[in-house]
Amino acid sequence: xxxxxxxxxxxxxxxxxxxxxxxxxxxxxxxxxxxxxxxxxxxxxxxxxxxxxxxxxxxxxxxxxxxxxxxxxxxxxxxxxxxxxxxxxxxxxxxxxxxxxxxxxxxxxxxxxxxxxxxxxxxxxxxxxxxxxxxxxxxxxxxxxxxxxxxxxxxxxxxxxxxxxxxxxxxxxxxxxxxxxxxxxxxxxxxxxxxxxxxxxxxx
Length: 204
Fold this sequence. Notes:
Elements: E1 5-8, H1 14-27, E2 31-35, H2 41-51, E3 57-61, H3 66-74, E4 79-81, H4 87-95, E5 99-101, E6 103-104, H5 107-115, E7 121-123, H6 126-138, E8 147-150, H7 158-163, E9 168-171, H8 182-203
Parallel strand pairs: 1-2, 1-9, 2-3, 3-4, 4-5, 6-7, 7-8, 8-9
Helix pairs in contact: 1-2, 1-8
């Protein structure tokens, strides 16, 4: 079963890529981004995309330039996540047939992203926006808009975000940090998925 969780593996190294991906997918997290400020990220993305073709959506985070979109596509990635809303990056991502999740905070950025073809909106940093902020913005967005809370959303408050219209989450340091063992990531992934499933069930 797939969850609306994007794993953010900032700092992942190529030798960790497949073991970490294994435990994430086993736990039920099959949307995974390697931020481009990680060590040799395109090597990791290429290995992950090849090994999990048809099983997981693999791509890059911290994508700021259109040329980076082409590089991720060439490596086999299919997911582009950014901390900002750059219409050019969004349009190129969609032209390449990839999924686009730009970072937004204001209604202006939200609608700019949607008009450019974004598949969903990454509310970042969620800790600054808060559930009440998302609730206010959500009131004016198209009902079908996918909204991901990233940076301040996690197992302790999934329910708060779901109740105001969040449809998914991006999870970074609560799931993976450089130095974590594969077993530690496995435990964290299972804990996060259990909390997500419980929050979704309670919100239905």
